[in-house]
UniProtKB/TrEMBL annotation:
<dbReference type="GO" id="GO:1902936">
    <property type="term" value="F:phosphatidylinositol bisphosphate binding"/>
</dbReference>
<dbReference type="Pfam" id="PF00650">
    <property type="entry name" value="CRAL_TRIO"/>
</dbReference>
<protein>
    <submittedName>
        <fullName>Alpha-tocopherol transfer protein-like</fullName>
    </submittedName>
</protein>
<dbReference type="GO" id="GO:0016020">
    <property type="term" value="C:membrane"/>
</dbReference>
<dbReference type="InterPro" id="IPR001251">
    <property type="entry name" value="CRAL-TRIO_dom"/>
</dbReference>
<dbReference type="InterPro" id="IPR036865">
    <property type="entry name" value="CRAL-TRIO_dom_sf"/>
</dbReference>
<feature type="domain" description="CRAL-TRIO">
    <location>
        <begin position="1"/>
        <end position="106"/>
    </location>
</feature>
Amino acid sequence: DAYVIGGYMEIVDVDKVGMNAMSKFDPIISKQFSTYCIKGSAIRIKGVHVINAPKEAYTALNIIRNLFPASIKERYFIHRKMEDLYKYVPKEYLPIEYGGRNGSLPELAKKHEQDLLDFNYYFKENDKYGVDEHLRQGQKMDMNSIFGLEGTFRKLDID
C-alpha cells in the first residue's frame, strides 16, 4: 500500500549503454510508456533519474525527455554527477555502489525477491479476478488513441 500511495522513484544507470543501443531506441514505445504511466498505472512516478550518461547520450536523452507530457517531463532528470542525484535521493536510500548506505545491489535484489515470495499468496489470489470487457458500458476503448502516436511534433527543445 505504501508503494501505491507514496509512489516510486526510478534511477536509470546508462553507464554501460552504448550509442549503438541508444540509436535503436523507439520514440513510439517511449510515448506509449508515458501514456501507461499517466493513465494506466495505479502507482505514481515521483521521479526518473538518469545517471552516468556520456556526453553523446545527453542530447538523445533530452530528446526522449521532450516526448513526455509536462506532468512526466518535470519529474525526469538527467544527472551529470552523482552529487546532483543526492539532492533528490538521500544517500541512506541508495546502494553502496552508488555512494549510499543501504546495502549492496545483490543484497537489495535478494531482499526484494524475498518480499515478492512473501506475497505469493496475494498474487495467486489476485489471479482469480479479472474484467469482462463485454459488460463495460459506454464507448469501446480505442487502443490506437490510447497507445498510438497521435498529433505532430511542432517544437522540440534540445539542451
